[in-house]
């Protein structure tokens, strides 16, 4: 990563600076701990940039750890997508990939240690009873009748759980802490439950699985994590995190710090909701370009640098907030404006016939790939007697503000000549089918010799040499800023979030690479659709428009 990306400080970095200055730690070890139950989204990118960014900047380490304690919801497809998304974002994990499931033997041994210390017991109340006994925020809980079993009895019953002699829900292991704690998580939390499920890493070895709160802190300690960074909803769980580590025999003492989640307007970020959109075919898969997933943003044409820049701009605090979608878009726009080569494509074509240009002639024009960066080179663009322009770039009549082609007036074709609209032809419905023009052959790369001014410049594509392409334009996936707050988030999906155009692109785009962004002159930033585009049927996605039109609408 370049110097230009040097990251600004935040409260977590200040804590680390102090820990290092105080000699509490001499190196930093973080981790990014996704649960492999869905694809990563832009919220995860915030956590990735924070954890891996800290490791990079402090010459420390950052583990990628799959927090895989819920076998029913997890899948190897998610494991693979997460690995590739982290790497695509420009980060690499230290050492081998970690799995919480690697520690199942140790976790089991620590559970037995807690039982031996009289700090855990096998519960046989039902889930409903457990909930009822737990009490509320205002009323203390009630102790379970199974709470004071002997160590021997608990050891035997826990072994019975492990051996598969209890049905799911018939027994669980609970920590014995405090049923009247003001922190609900401390009211004898469940540590282990029975699940007869096949696990993507451990197969059928286990039928008891540890809970997140028991697993996470021990995994952190076993990996020597120094700063365990998570989102604010785990603030109360920090009591339990510390309690577990204080009551087992383990060497390192990691600390948990919480920061606020990223919330983005006009989208949802919960994996449960994203997964519903996919399974109910409301979008075309996890990597649908309208999804806030890393793979969706990638397919839409976002660059890794633009996502890292976004994470840097939003910063890391403890304040809950909602970020405008346009601030994500402006990051990719800034990146592509600087780095994307220019090309021409016509989204809604109308035919222009240049009557004084020879019928079978193809003139090869040389056009710069970037207006301010000669080092990006040139490309060849064929110019022919028939070209296509945007229907919207022609008017029969217009006032002076309209700087495009008007009947009887002149306009410049980008990188080519000045043309003049002489007459038009319409179909029976009155739609313009052809604009007949003449061109001034003295105007290639220079102004007309007689000093007359031609202000407008429009883009175009050769009709015979251009290549048809499907062009997909995207809008917000939801019609309201906070769909998660709607009664039914699926009822506020934007029915016009995808518009498809049958356009034509300049021939150089046939060799466009996947993951390469282009500015199509005057219409926005585009990329090849990595899934649906083929050599015979090109498909382009619009990443973002040239300007923030959204801000104007609101
Ligand atoms: P969900 O609740 O949608 O399932 P999650 O938080 O459970 O999401 P995990 O896979 O457990 O998803 O997340 C991995 C890491 O990414 C966690 O440390 C989590 O705090 C962080 N994370 C998840 N969502 C966000 C977000 N919106 N903003 C910042 N960090 C996030
Ligand atoms: Mg989680």
UniProtKB/TrEMBL annotation:
Q: Looking at the keywords, is tRNA processing present?
A: no
Q: Name one GO biological process term.
A: glutamyl-tRNA aminoacylation
Residues in tRNA synthetases class I (E and Q) anti-codon binding domain copies: 457-529
Residue span of motif 'HIGH' region: 34-44
Identify the GO cellular component terms for this protein: cytosol
Instruction: Please indicate the residue ranges that the annotation assigns to the motif 'KMSKS' region.
Output: 268-272
Q: Which residues form the Glutamyl/glutaminyl-tRNA synthetase class Ib catalytic domain?
A: 28-337
Task: Give the main localization category.
Answer: cytoplasm
| Keywords (A to Z) from UniProt | Aminoacyl-tRNA synthetase, ATP-binding, Cytoplasm, Ligase, Nucleotide-binding, Protein biosynthesis
Q: Does the keyword tRNA processing apply?
A: no
HAMAP family, sorted: Gln_tRNA_synth (MF_00126)
Description of how the protein assembles with itself and partners: Monomer.
What is this protein called in UniProt? Glutamine--tRNA ligase
Instruction: Give the species this sequence originates from.
Output: Vibrio ezurae NBRC 102218
According to the entry, what is the taxonomic lineage of the organism? Bacteria, Pseudomonadati, Pseudomonadota, Gammaproteobacteria, Vibrionales
